[in-house]
Amino acid sequence: MLSAELFAGCGGLALGMSRAGFKHAYMAEFDHDAVETVLHNKSKGVEHVCDWPMGLKDVREIDWKNISTLDLISGGPPCQPFGIGGKKLGQDDHRDMWPEAIRAIREAKPRMFLFENVRNLAGPRFQPYLNWIVASLERPSMLRRLDESHEAHLARLSVSRSKREYRVVWQLVNAADYGAAQIRHRVLIFGINAEVGVAPARMIPTHSRDRLLWDQFVTGEYWARHGLKPRREALLAQDRRRVAELRKLDVAPATQPWLTVRDALRGLGEPNGKRNHVLQPGARVYPGHTGSPLDLPSKALKAGDHGVPGGENMMVRDDGTVRYFTTREAARLVGLPDDYEFPRSWTESMRQLGNAVPAQLGAAAGGWLASLAAKGVQPSLVPKRRAA
Hints:
Helices cover 30% and strands 13% of the residues. By secondary structure, the chain is an alpha/beta fold. Helix 3 (98-108) links the parallel strand 3 (72-75) and strand 4.
């Protein structure tokens, strides 16, 4: 299945899509350092990455008429306009690239698409814009007029009797619910060409905190796997009642357990100065920034506009002390393989990793979408645009 990856960053989502069976025919990223990271790993022959046609490219300059017919377009438009931090300018921010994502769908006409962004996009401040994005993706050929506001365009889209070109659904997800060792809440937007004859559906979680609690505090299997004695002190107060409820059920949850920091870093050992596994000094705790316990998924890695925030991106060790995650450890939390290297500084590398979609979430979402589309009309039966 041929795909295009937009706003590719250091490759988290792209790697997930590759693992789900998509072959990237086109990739675009505007950030020079992120592109250099991908090209470094391409030259090293890292699996999947070695085949990526990565290039430094502004999506606004892409002529979709010269790109081969695609099964899928995926990507994460810059989230800074909609993040919790920053100026929160949304669609008025010059970095807002959602119109370009919509243009890509309008002109390339892929069978399906997958876009992701921060969960704040679904919050009260930006919900109207999310509604406009979804409506525009359903009817991408119905362009917004030059003098038309997003609200007026949404109203016109909502009452249009023209056929919907894509069937679209969005949902809030936590990456930990799909196998990532990181609590990362995102908005996913799925779309399938209406001619395929299948409606997209929301993903079903494959992992859960309940199953982790079961393995930790009902059976103790988690501690045995790590060669540790059960650590009741790791049980948070709010989870005690849930553990009691799980014991009464006497049946393990059907999902897999959340992957913890300890799980993700197993076998890596303490920093040794090799392959991005280098100790970074200066970690400290302050209110609201207390690091990630080893026996839960990590808190969301942060990028930061001016480097890594002082109290974030660090682990709380068994003795209660804290230290920053090394680049190698952070890469594991994002689901990147150990041979995937970051040639830039720790601060720059952590910025890229803080912006990355966990590859496990990308693989789950890509596989989910592909399985849905496979139930509809086969690609050869859907009218296609001839590549230039």
